[in-house]
Design a protein that fits this description.
278 residues, alpha/beta, Metallo-beta-lactamase, Chain A, 7-stranded mixed beta sheet, 6 helices, 14 strands, 20% helix
Length: 278
Amino acid sequence: MIIRSWGSRGSIPVSGKEHIKYGGDTTCIEVTSSEGDTLIIDAGTGIRKLGNKLVQNDKKINIIFTHPHWDHLSGFPFFKPLYQEGRSIEVRGPRTTQESVKQIISHTMAPPFFPIDLDDIHADISFHSTGPENFQMGSLYIKTIPINHTSKGVGYRIEEGGKSFVFLTDNELGHSHPYGLASGDYKKFAEGADVLFHDAEYTPDDYKDVKGWGHSVYLDALELAHSSGVMEFGLFHHNQDRDDIGIDALVSDCERITKEKSLSMKCYGVSCETEIKL
């Protein structure tokens, strides 16, 4: 299993010399199975660049969504495989959202906001719902869990060949939302994972003014990673106003605390070029 990040920014894409290291594109994760199957998590602006790569082959593409907020959807209309005749694309979205995944996606391509309607694309696209049940995609086994966020949604644990990757973005550990779970449930879900990417958008000072917005303090995410016994912890959903120096500072603090606890867990900020082979 290969995990590649094409976007790890939260809320809105950013640009500028202060964002070079971690990048400015919003959420998009590519998982490639040992059999060569492609699974994409979310379609933030990072999916545009991924799509430019995927047009070079004609294999089926699977896309799963965590939740329907704009920063996780806005790249979808710019995903070039959509416009390839005969391309097979399967899209899954959380059953807990207020509308079907097809309705949600269609909003991103509706006039007057976009010139091409979803019904006019060339690809053969099908829509399905995910959660709370687990499901299989080729050699990848995918477990789901409700995320603790303002618009509901799901997190994912992807397993293959004894390896596991847990993706919990937009998951607020310091506040209770409808349909969300307790921290202990997320600990159990992530337990023993090789890699955990978790929402780590805020500092404690930030959080004073944004509690209930659906995102976590990086220290809470770190504690979850420690208590779950994961091998690697990737800070994710970087705040749009946090530059490379600021993210480096959060990572350094996580490394310091991890070392003080005599733990061997690896900590890093997920960038738009992060790649992990399991």
